[in-house]
Amino acid sequence: MMHDARPKVGIFGLTSCAGDQLQILNCEDELLRLAGRIDIVDWVMAKSGNDHTCRLDIAFVEGVVATERDLETLRQVRARTSFLVALGTCAVWGGLPAMRNDLPREVLEREVYSGAVDFLDTVEARPATDFVPVEYRLPGCPIERHEFLHLVDSLLAGTVPELPAVPVCFECKTRENLCRVIYFDDVCCGAMTRGGCGARCPSHGVACAGCRGPIEEPNYDANVQMFATRGISWREIATRMSNFSAPVWMTLGLRSEAHHDDH
Known about the structure:
Elements: E1 8-13, H1 19-25, H2 29-35, E2 39-42, E3 58-62, E4 64-67, H3 68-80, E5 84-87, H4 89-93, H5 105-113, E6 122-127, E7 136-138, H6 145-156, H7 168-174, H8 200-203, H9 220-229, H10 234-262
Parallel strand pairs: 1-2, 1-3, 3-5, 5-7
Antiparallel strand pairs: 4-6
């Protein structure tokens, strides 16, 4: 009897739009190629007959923890696998669901449901990385398909790829785009957002919204000066960046803003 030596893989979603899982499905021909090298045993969005209890070699989790059920699911997945990937900006940084954690849960429930609700078990929306250790973080809203495929190929080869260390601004310049800040006075987050998207938004005439989260070492001082010369306040940039990475940006960015306001 032949044994299937393919790594067992699970793909899971917490509270999210499921856009990252959809991106994987959109890999189409490449996904068929991967299916011959990995055994996707648990993926509710894409298949039936899932094994919800077996040991996993690799697990991908997208979304935020916004309910007690999310947290239970996340912990179960963490216990099942030796390699956990936080998939997408929500899982890595908090994404859009974490934008309005400044509002009490009861206010959000009232505004959304227009009355008392007793079936929700919501908690403050936080990224999966806040609750369990992960072996790799793949940002993006949604993820870039080529980065996902490269990650899987690397894992099968026994290594992990390095994410781009350059900001979106670098990719923008290589495409010879006109700077959205200098030429259009836009509130553009490209200078502090991790590259990898190929500067897709600025290349189509739209300012970077920071969906891939901040680079590891944003140069706050230089960026504050650049924004100030264009009449753009640090608060405008911090607010825009917090759309996708509120938990980390509200801690790092606004603290830096307070520093600069004091000086």
